[in-house]
Design brief:
The chain has 273 residues and is of the alpha/beta class. It has 9 helices and 12 strands. It has helices at residues 59-66, 90-97, 115-125, 131-144, 160-172, 190-205, 217-223, 241-245, 251-258, and strands spanning 21-30, 33-43, 48-52, 74-79, 82-83, 100-103, 178-182, 210-213, 226-231, 234-239, 267-268, 271-272. Helix 3 crosses helix 4 (131-144). The chain starts with 20 loop residues before the first strand and ends with a strand.
Length: 273
């Protein structure tokens, strides 16, 4: 399918009236470079949506628009009733980010703080939560990400996979309505990818609403309710994992997915194969 400049594909993965997240005809440019060229997306509470596609197709920029890290030039972005595209002040953006967590490729942990303190910092400083209750929550989250024995360790003492799991726990400590995962395994050694995917899979099975940008094709196939394929700043197609990975009639998608056959991303008993 070839898109002309005047065309855009309307993608709604669910009923736009009940969606937790809605993007409607979102356009964004950096200077003369068009990055997003009319993105539509809707995600229901409890859904897991994976965005796949070649590098430079706008995948990560979509997440940054949802979390108000960048502002589109046109279009509508709504998260839980908040018009994200109309936020103007930093206080409004902070209020949004209390409800929308994001986990990046890099862990961005504070190296001078212990694992426990890294997790406790935002809820106590931003939400004003009490320290004892927040520490209790932090320890529960460390158990969830399988790092109960690391609360007193410093980031430099952890592997990349362990640091990324701390970053996930830190995002969850804010009790967000939605978590965005931006290529969270791309900087990891292949041996540690599986431990991070295992944690994310457990969270999604518990009903966490999530949007994932990923090149882990087998993982996306396993955990997603909907898979979105983007290229050149546009949504080319979307559908169930079965439709995108196995029965797509789009030759570009078949070519892209076929290039990842046999790659990383399938997890079994906590391992990546």
């Amino acid at each position: 399918m070839r898109f002309e400049p005047a065309q855009r594909m309307t993608l709604m993965t669910t009923d736009t009236k009940t969606a937790l997240v809605r993007l409607e005809d979102v356009h964004l440019s950096f200077g003369r470079t068009e990055v997003l060229k009319g993105i539509d997306l809707a995600v229901n509470k409890g859904d897991a949506v994976s965005i796949i596609g070649p590098s430079g197709s706008g995948k990560s920029t979509i997440l940054r628009c949802i979390n108000a890290l960048v502002q589109p030039q046109s279009g509508r972005i709504t998260v839980g009733g908040t018009r994200v595209d109309q936020l103007t002040g930093e206080s409004e953006r902070i209020a949004l980010r209390k409800r929308v967590g994001i986990v990046f490729q890099q862990y961005n942990l504070f190296p001078h703080l212990t694992v426990l303190d890294n997790i406790v910092l935002a809820p106590t400083r931003i939400l004003g939560a009490g320290r004892p209750a927040t520490e209790k929550l932090a320890r529960e989250l460390l158990e969830k990400v399988r790092l109960s024995d690391k609360e007193n360790a410093y980031p430099g003492q952890l592997s990349g996979g362990q640091q990324q799991r701390v970053a996930i726990a830190r995002a969850l400590a804010m009790k967000p309505d939605l978590v965005l995962f931006d290529e969270v395994t791309s900087a990891l050694d292949p041996e540690t990818v599986g431990e991070v995917l295992w944690v994310i899979r457990d969270l999604i099975r518990e009903g966490m609403t999530s949007i994932l940008v990923t090149h882990e094709m087998r993982f996306a196939e396993e955990i997603s309710d909907t898979v979105v394929f983007t290229e050149n700043g546009r949504v080319v197609d979307h559908g169930t994992p079965q439709q995108i990975f196995h029965t797509s009639g789009n030759p570009r998608i078949r070519q892209f997915v076929g290039g990842f056959s046999g790659g990383r991303g399938e997890i079994r008993d906590g391992e990546s194969i």
